[in-house]
Structure formats: C-alpha cells, structure tokens
TrEMBL record:
Domain of life: Bacteria
Protein name: IroE protein
Name of the gene encoding the protein in the UniProt record: yuiI
Region Disordered, annotated ranges: 1-23
Keyword terms of this UniProt record: Hydrolase
Organism name: Collimonas fungivorans (strain Ter331)
Length: 377
C-alpha cells in the first residue's frame, strides 16, 4: 500500500495521536502502540492518514511539531512512562510512518496494452531496413496444440488493432468465424508512415528518382514477406502456412494485386479493399494482361470490396464522393478483365458497400472479408 501523510482532525474526544492505515487491523495495532506510550497525554490533534505516497518533508515537519508539543506532556507523565520507552518514541514513529516504500513522485500512467499480442522485430537483409511484426494469438492458443490459419494485414498501425477487435468479436461473441493468428506488417522503423507505404506498396516508380519521395518497391517488399516474414512466422508460431490470407486497403490492396499478378499462390485468399487501380495511369490493367499472356491459370480466391461513395458524381456536392478517380468502376472493370481470361483456378467476386467512402469503408469490408475467408466450421 502506497502511503501519504496528511494532517486532519480526528473524531475522538481525547485528542490522542493516532496512525490510521487502509487496513483496519493494522491501524488499531499502530494506535494501540501509541496509546501504550502515551495513555493519558492530551496532544495536538493530528491524525496521520496513510494513502498514496510518503511526503518526507511533510512528515518531518509533523514529527518536529509533534515532538515540541510532546515535551510539555512528557513533564507530566515522566513519572509514569519508562525512560527507555520515551527514548524509543521518535524511532518507533519513524518506523511506523515509513513502513511502506514510497512510490515515484511523478509516476507515469501505464500504457494500454492489447492482451495476447506481441511485437517482433525483424531486420530485412533484402530491403536493408528494420520492421516490426505485430502478432495477435487466438484465445485457445495457450491451451491447444493445433495450428491456425494466418491473416497478414498491411498498414498495421491502423489495421492491426481494428482487425483484431472485429475478429475477436466474431469468434468470442458470435462463433461466426474460425480462430486465426493475426500478423500486422508495420511500416519501416524510423520512416514516416506515408513515405514507407508509398515506397513499399507501389509496383512502379512514378517519381523517377526526383525529390525525397520514393515509390515502386513493391516487388522487393513482396520478396521480404515471402523469404523473411513467412519463415519467421512459421518458426515461431503454430501457424498453418498452407492457409495464408492477405488483407489490405487502398495502397495495401495495390500491393495485394501486385502479389496476385506475380505469385498468386503466395496467399490462399486475398481480401482487397478499395484497390488503388488508378495508380500510374492504371498500370495494373496492363500488368494483368501481361500475366494472362504468360500464364494459363491464376490459382487464387479474391474478394474485392469498395464503398459506394468511391466514385465520381459530377454536380453532386457531397464531400464523400471522390473528386477525380472512379474507383468503383475501376474495380468492376478489373474484375471483368480477369474473368475474361477464364483462369480455371481463379475465384473472384466484388461487392460495393453502400453509404461508405474511402475513409469509412475498412471496418465493414474487413468484417465481410473475415466472414468470407474464415467461416465457422
């Protein structure tokens, strides 16, 4: 119990000094000792309350004042009080007051922590940068020996706590989906988040090396996930690496499309929200055609989702509509183009979520994505 000494009027009629603590038993014991020392003296009516922490300066002042007042009473009770006991009084009082170690004067409040989560540092030899993996383990992980599907989420600073909360609610409260391990792919250490995602999530370089901005390193980042993140997760967790799910939004979905058109079997399922198909003059449409010319199949399950406001509506002044890019039509066109090649292993579908825009659509789309990718058995 942390303590603080505060002077206060005591409700007794005899004016004796008492020491009260948060425990009734210990308070009676301490007061009994002082009454044994001074059974009849009428002293200054201080009551020392032990509460949160010790103020040593205040205690010293109280003790000095108490001792001065006590000297008068000592003259009257010197006959009745044993000499040795009177000498022990200051030491005894000091021991009672400082019996609990003080807390730091300016202790900072504890940060809020997400239960069942871990942060793993990973230094990439491919990218020559350091990243962190945010990992959330299912509730039954500690008491079971089974392996779990793994969902990898981009933009982890935002996406990880949101997916974790929605996933836990669907598992614990509704038994709507299977338990899974969640791995958040964070931004590179020391870099601004916007700078990091612009560089790592985009498939082509639109800056031509000009200025401080970088782009077009999606392939290097994909290799980092495949060759360094996957082995790390497999070695440290009971992950079913045959059931890997990719989830991203906006540029995160642009990266997902790059993975899909480069190594589609890298993930079993893709949850792609509001894909930025407008990027670099709609370069992903030409990338898909190049893939189709070189491959006869695209073995993957793909769910694309977008908000109904992510389109352009000339003449409508609702600020939720996009001002330039009709991302809804882009998504429909891309789905149509993929289906036109009749890949036997491809299962793709899309959905427009009503009354959502680019900034609000992620919570409902990831809810739908989890229900689609991990339905309860």
């Amino acid at each position: 119990m942390r303590q603080q000494l505060l002077p206060s009027r005591r409700g007794s009629s005899d004016g004796r000094v008492g020491i009260r603590t948060g425990s009734a038993g210990s308070g009676r014991f301490q007061e009994m000792i002082l009454r044994t020392i001074s059974p009849s003296a009428r002293l200054s009516p201080f009551v020392f309350f032990t509460r949160s922490r010790v103020d040593e300066t205040g205690v010293a002042a109280h003790i000095i004042a108490w001792q001065k007042h006590r000297s008068i009473a000592n003259e009257r009770e010197s006959i009745n009080m044993p000499q040795k006991l009177r000498k022990l009084l200051p030491a005894l009082l000091f021991t009672l007051v400082f019996s609990v170690p003080p807390a730091p004067a300016n202790a900072a409040p504890r940060p809020y922590e997400l239960e069942g989560t871990e942060v793993q540092s990973i230094s990439s030899k491919i990218l020559h940068r350091d990243y962190e993996l945010f990992v959330s383990l299912p509730a039954s992980y500690a008491t079971s020996q089974k392996r779990y599907p793994v969902l990898f989420i981009t933009d982890a600073n935002y996406g990880f706590p949101l997916v974790r909360s929605i996933g836990n609610r669907l598992v614990v409260h509704g038994n709507k989906i299977q338990e899974f391990i969640l791995v958040g792919l964070s931004y590179s250490k020391g870099d601004d988040p916007v700078f990091s995602r612009n560089r790592d999530y985009t498939p082509t370089d639109t800056t031509s090396g000009k200025g401080k901005e970088l782009s077009g390193q999606a392939e290097q980042y994909r290799q980092f996930i495949e060759r360094e993140v996957f082995p790390f997760v497999a070695a440290n967790y009971r992950a079913d690496m045959s059931r890997k799910i990719y989830a991203g939004h906006s540029y995160g979905s642009l990266l997902g499309l790059h993975v899909l058109l480069t190594e589609p079997q890298m993930f079993d399922q893709y949850i792609l929200g509001s894909p930025s198909l407008w990027y670099d003059k709609k370069v992903m449409f030409s990338q898909e055609r190049l893939y189709a010319a070189a491959h006869k199949d695209m073995p993957a399950k793909v769910l694309m989702l977008i908000g109904s406001f992510e389109t352009v509506k000339p003449g409508d002044h609702n600020p939720r509509y996009n001002k330039e890019s009709d991302m809804v039509q882009d998504m429909k066109d891309f789905e149509k183009q993929m289906n036109s090649h009749r890949y036997p292993g491809l299962k793709v579908r899309s959905e427009v979520i009503q009354d959502e825009d680019h900034l609000t659509v992620f919570p409902p789309l990831i809810t739908r994505g989890l229900l689609w990718a991990l339905p309860a058995k």
